[in-house]
């Protein structure tokens, strides 16, 4: 039987660059949202002339579209992901620009008729609206409030009730009209402590400042719980948003 220390060492050793979660196969599972973001992304990209993917990671999802717009751009803030994203988008003729998640976008007003983002850490509503053409679309699968709360609390203790993300108000204030807004809670199961270590190193906001040394007692307790009771269950929360930039009304 693989020991606690072996699993910890394995979870620490796996590279975290990119958003490829293939390593988790057989070690952790997470339900997929029913709306099928990859399918929606492909459909919208097929109809676009100029598109922008924000916080693309390694562009693994974007690279899966069957056909690309004439202009395809992406942003990414983490240097290890940049090379991966550029390599993945090269066959589609895509360009990847290094931009910090909280910085203004280095694109002119009205540059894109489609802006997309999967699991953004920060949503700069006014910047999204600024770079969209009037009538343009913003499509996003976002991380819902209180996501993976059970996993966070296993390390941090009881947390305050999740706050409303304020999506409707923020979108409206930026000049975006919401067409679709759906929320789902998705069951996630972790079959060993190595998978949890790798997940917490990769999805940094789950336990801010996570290191194995800092949280070794909690890891040991969680390992024992998995050994005795089976997979640790948490719930990821996701939302699907489709919005359009309002066309200015000119009064005579």
Automatic annotation (TrEMBL):
Keywords: Methyltransferase, Transferase. Transmembrane segments: none annotated. Residues 52-138 form the Methyltransferase type domain. GO terms for biological process: methylation. One of its GO terms (molecular function) is S-adenosylmethionine-dependent methyltransferase activity. Pfam families: Methyltransf_11. InterPro entries: 23S_rRNA_MeTrnsfrase_RlmA, Methyltransf_11, SAM-dependent_MTases_sf. It comes from the Bacteria. This is Class I SAM-dependent methyltransferase. The lineage of its organism: Bacteria, Bacillati, Actinomycetota, Actinomycetes, Pseudonocardiales.
């Amino acid at each position: 039987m693989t020991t606690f220390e072996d699993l910890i060492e394995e979870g620490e050793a796996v590279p975290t660059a990119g958003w490829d979660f293939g390593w988790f196969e057989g070690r952790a599972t997470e339900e997929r949202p029913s709306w099928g973001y990859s399918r929606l992304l492909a459909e919208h990209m097929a109809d676009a002339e100029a598109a922008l993917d924000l916080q693309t990671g390694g562009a693994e999802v974007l690279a899966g579209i069957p056909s690309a717009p004439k202009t395809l751009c992406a942003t990414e803030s983490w240097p290890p992901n940049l090379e991966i994203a550029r390599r993945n988008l090269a066959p589609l003729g895509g360009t990847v620009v290094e931009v910090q998640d909280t910085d203004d976008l280095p694109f002119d007003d009205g540059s894109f008729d489609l802006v997309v983002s999967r699991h953004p850490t920060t949503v700069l509503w006014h910047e999204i609206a600024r770079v969209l053409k009037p009538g343009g679309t913003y499509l996003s699968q976002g991380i819902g409030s209180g996501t993976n709360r059970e996993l966070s609390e296993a390390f941090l203790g009881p947390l305050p009730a999740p706050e409303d993300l304020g999506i409707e108000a923020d979108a409206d204030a930026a000049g975006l009209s919401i067409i679709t807004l759906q929320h789902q809670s998705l069951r996630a199961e972790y079959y060993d402590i190595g998978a949890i270590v790798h997940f917490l190193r990769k999805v940094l906001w789950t336990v801010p400042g996570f290191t194995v040394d800092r949280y070794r007692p909690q890891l040991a307790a969680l390992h024992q719980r998995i050994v005795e009771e089976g997979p640790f269950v948490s719930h990821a929360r996701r939302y699907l948003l489709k919005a359009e930039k309002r066309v200015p009304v000119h009064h005579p």
